[in-house]
Amino acid sequence: MSSQAPAESPSRERHATSITRYYIDTRPLVPPPSTPKSEITHPLLSTLQYADEEAITRFIRPADRFMSLASALLKYTFIHRRAKVAWSQIRISRTPHPHRRPYWEPPTIWTSPDPDSKGLEFNVSHQAGLVALIGSTTPTVQEPNPSTSISEITPISPTPLDHFEHHGLKHHHTPILPAGQVRLGVDIACTNEDKRTPTSKTQAEFEEWVDIFAEMFSDRERQDMRAAPIHVPVVEREYGEPFTDSDDSSVDERGAEARQIEQKLRRFYAYWALKEAYIKMVGEGLLADWLRELEFLHVVAPPMPKEAKVKRGPSTTGAVPNAQAHNHAHLHPDGYQHESEKWTPPDKAERGLTTLFRGNKVEDVDIELVAYDEDFILATATRGVQELEIEPQTRRWLRLDIERDIRPCAEGTCACLD
């Protein structure tokens, strides 16, 4: 297949900036199924642009509608605060079908509050009621489609390294970014979601289930999912109470196998989140035809917070319903004193995995895995950015309350533009 060489080799210099991490847990917002539609309200919906409002109201299920609303509110809040743009002036665009990646194009009269930044980059994910945004400034205006698709430069025969050099891919093996471009990706995986997580707890059933995803994961990845030992994550190595393949001596053999499978399922969702975050960073999504050529090695799923583990008690053998708000009480244990305790501490995030593309190590993409609450794993992939950490807590995910944190911005009573 023919390909086009870039006009110039992309710059390897990273843009130094802070990274914003926002999230909204919409589960408490979703009313019980018996609530009449006339009594369901959607806060700040009318403050959004008509196209965004219309997209939100197209969803039928209240849970989906609230996640869509939260996604829009996070994007507006990020743009409002980082670009210093009035809420009413925010316009969010999307790349063409089929990817439809949202982006912000600065208005012609806009002046950046930061002389070293000329635009914004962000990515949003939502799953089972949790909605998260990662964003940063960029040194140039972000181009909607800055990358040459990997699929456009993939020949039928194996690719020699000099071919990658011709395309600026010899070291990072990802789509080409012009100089100054930044790309971020985030994905949320729910490890215990209704109708998605298998209820089987035997090794044979788990292996059969993993092979359903042969088009997304390589043979090596699926073999690791099936057979690799369950390693002790960073947090548990420090705090004790490790989950290993051999710590169930006090329970019967069936219970031990079920617990191992539960941990392997959690690791499977870590793989899933990693792959989705990476391809969202690239901008191709699950439509990418090179998914199996992108591999992650040495994946360790971050454990659930210690307090949640204590509150939850012994492992169950079936999926716990958590997709509906009226069933989410078990996800909010009373033992949490601060919202930050629901997260993997920033210094305990899993960053030691290896990323490969076509067998070659990817060097210029930062990958991170963290856990939230009992059942969520978040993966982030960042390229072209060097995160500035003013304070240790700046790497934490910040929960936004719609009424307390977002409404003042939407109604023009905040101090963000001062």
TrEMBL record:
InterPro entries associated with the record: 4-PPantetheinyl_Trfase_dom, 4-PPantetheinyl_Trfase_dom_sf, AASDHPPT_N, P-Pant_transferase_sf
Enzyme Commission identifier(s): 2.7.8.7
An annotated GO BP: lysine biosynthetic process via aminoadipic acid
GO molecular function: holo-[acyl-carrier-protein] synthase activity; magnesium ion binding
Source organism, top-level taxon: Eukaryota
A cellular component annotation (GO) from this entry: cytosol
SUPFAM superfamilies cross-referenced by the UniProt entry: 4'-phosphopantetheinyl transferase
Ranges where the record places region Disordered: 328-348
Biased composition annotated in UniProt, kind: Basic and acidic residues: 331-348
Keyword Transferase: yes
This protein's UniProt keywords: Transferase
The keyword DNA-binding appears for this protein: no
UniProt name for this protein: holo-[acyl-carrier-protein] synthase
Species name: Exophiala viscosa
